[in-house]
Design a protein that fits this description.
By secondary structure, this protein is an alpha/beta fold. The protein contains 12 helices and 18 strands. Strand 14 and strand 15 form a beta hairpin.
Length: 425
């Protein structure tokens, strides 16, 4: 192997996984290793896996096959939720080491030592002996900023145990990063990016275990020069204190991704979601009373085992009433080890039809929201070029296309027409 081997990352799943990969990448970079793009030829590959659905777990396994086609002699290191769930599915030729959701920083640090000739036995076994979930927050001390929108992980784990979700079993109980650690990383990010996205497995639970709250964090960030965007939120975090803190920030992005999962009360009860549609709608109205042009987006699961035809119709009607700016629509995925995993699944054709109908509503509601943005000045953070046009996002997460732009710059533009999945200047 070369003196400075090349390392590539394949990361599946959520923004928290992406943050973890960026943090590991930073350790390798600071350690003098060469880090390259995911599908380039490399000596070493790290696969950060996902298990939120059966499809995500399948794609995690397929990643190993794709790697060996690129470099049959590659060393492959596995970590993340899918290996935490079932490590044996990754035990195959080419895989050097398998760990779970805990100790990702240690894995990166030991790779730096190994590549520097400091063999200390960490990788003597293909499978780490410790597959317990972390009990305290593992602070990565900052990441290598790779994007115009920089993710900052502030929380990990979840205590909710929704009936369909395997994540709490794999990520462990909710645990928060110190307020000082969050502020330190955001201060560092100010030198290289224009926007920070606060993310976590259950972002709304931030601070409950360390005597603070998400509202307190937003208050502490009121003087930052960066745009601050929040990841997925739960209904319970939306209250006057939280909205006061958000409204007091110079760079707060009025985009609230408020998890729903179903617009039917019976299904919500079976999902163990702990709120009613009436309570949810009350919070949506509270948001809009403070941020009239806010984008309220959501996640919806279709085809949950107890979802009847009538329940699905109620869910559709509720989504229309809520007037979401966008929806992420997912077919139910049965996960062994969860409460819902014991229930008989609905016919695939029924689930597919409900997904088609809900996705149609998604596009309808998205177009309605984007139409309201036409003729309004929007501050856009330009990120990439697509088909000759610059594109980026406004604070309320409308995708904007323009002829002129520059990566990682902010510009105020006025869109005049709908275009693809966004609007165009």
């Amino acid at each position: 192997m070369k003196d400075k081997p090349t390392v590539a990352f394949l990361t599946l799943g959520c923004k928290v996984n992406q943050y973890d990969a960026d943090a590991m990448r930073a350790v390798l970079d600071y350690g003098g290793l060469n880090v390259c793009e995911a599908h380039e030829f490399a000596d070493i590959y790290i696969v950060n896996t996902c298990a939120v659905t059966a499809e995500a777990e399948r794609k995690s396994r397929q990643a190993v096959t794709r790697i060996l086609k690129i470099n049959p002699d590659a060393e492959i290191y596995i970590c993340g939720c899918a290996s935490q769930n079932n490590f044996s599915q990754f035990a195959r030729d080419g895989v050097k080491f398998i760990s779970g959701t805990k100790g990702k920083l240690a894995l990166a640090e030991e790779l730096v030592k190994k590549c520097g000739g400091e063999e200390d036995g960490f990788f003597d076994k293909i499978v780490t002996s410790d597959f317990e979930t972390a009990k305290s927050y593992e602070d990565f001390r900052g990441t290598l900023t790779m994007r115009t929108r920089h993710y900052v992980k502030i929380q990990d784990g979840c205590n909710n145990f929704c009936s369909y979700c395997i994540v709490p079993y794999l990520r462990g109980r909710s645990r928060s990063r110190s307020l000082s650690g969050v502020l330190r990383e955001i201060e560092t990010a100010e030198t290289s990016c224009k926007e920070v996205v606060l993310t976590g497995i259950n972002l709304s639970a931030y601070g409950k275990d360390i005597g603070t709250s998400l509202a307190d964090l937003l208050t502490a960030l009121q003087s930052t020069s960066l745009r601050i965007r929040l990841g997925s939120l739960e209904v319970g975090v939306i209250d006057e204190k939280f909205l006061d803190a958000a409204a007091g920030m110079k760079g707060f992005c009025p985009h609230f991704h408020l998890s729903l999962q179903s617009g039917d009360d019976d299904v919500l009860r079976n999902m163990n979601r702990r709120y009613t549609t009436a309570q949810y709608l009350e919070k949506v109205r509270l948001i809009r009373s403070r941020f009239p042009d806010a984008a309220v987006t959501t996640d919806v699961i279709v085809g949950y085992p107890t979802e009847s035809d009538e329940a699905f119709r109620r869910s559709m009607a509720f989504c229309r009433e809520a007037g979401f700016a966008d929806m992420h629509v997912f077919p139910y995925s049965s996960r062994k080890g969860t409460v819902a995993g014991k229930l008989p699944v609905l016919p695939a054709a029924v689930v597919a039809e409900r997904q088609r109908a809900m996705t149609g509503l998604k596009h309808e509601l998205s177009a309605e929201y984007r139409l309201k943005q036409l003729g309004k000045p929007l501050e856009v953070l330009f990120e990439t070029k697509e088909d000759g046009l610059w594109c980026g996002h406004s604070p309320n997460y409308v995708k904007v296309y323009a002829m002129d732009g520059e990566r990682n710059t902010l510009a105020t533009v006025t869109p005049t027409a709908l275009f693809g999945d966004g609007v165009r200047v």
